[in-house]
User: What shape does this take?
Amino acid sequence: MEAFSFAKSIGVGLVESAINLTRSILYDRPEEITFVGTCGAYMESIPLLEIFETQSATNIELSFLQKQCYTPLNNFLTNVSCETMTKNSNDILSQNLKIVNSSNYITTDSTLAKHLVKLGITYENMEFFSILQVAKAFELPVIGIFCVTNHTHSEAQKEFFANHKAAIKRLESYIYSKSTNFHQ
Assistant: This one.
């Protein structure tokens, strides 16, 4: 959904973004990946339009929190290395990482969002886990830069659309200031 003049669009969701990023890596041969996008916040105390950077993501479906499923996959990635949330989760939480959960679904249940917060996961974006997974496969460093558009509750979609344009402008300004500072 996001489109920036300084970046390639890779699509929406885990599958589309993985396919398009893989295609881009094969054709363009980048040395690193910077993912720029919007996200939701699981905690109401996180301010809307906050910008942050991270290298950590999970792929946890809400049904997992309700013990209605399991996964044989590693569902936690950080700094292009892989660990499972069940293994060493106390160590992971004590690092105070900004962790983004990725799913093809947007959370609208604030009670389930609180379960994710207890795991140390405070944001959600539909693509970032697959970006980390693809970067890991190609052994490329990756970072995500995000702006919070909404909190996860029953009105999340309305809040997203109300803040989306402002979030895009803030991200553009942030990237521009980083590139200007980098080149000075």
Notes: The chain has a mean pLDDT of 86. Strands lie at 33-41, 51-54, 56-58, 76-78, 81-83, 99-101, 121-124, 142-151. The CA atoms of residues 120 and 152 lie 15 Å apart. The chain has six helices and eight strands.
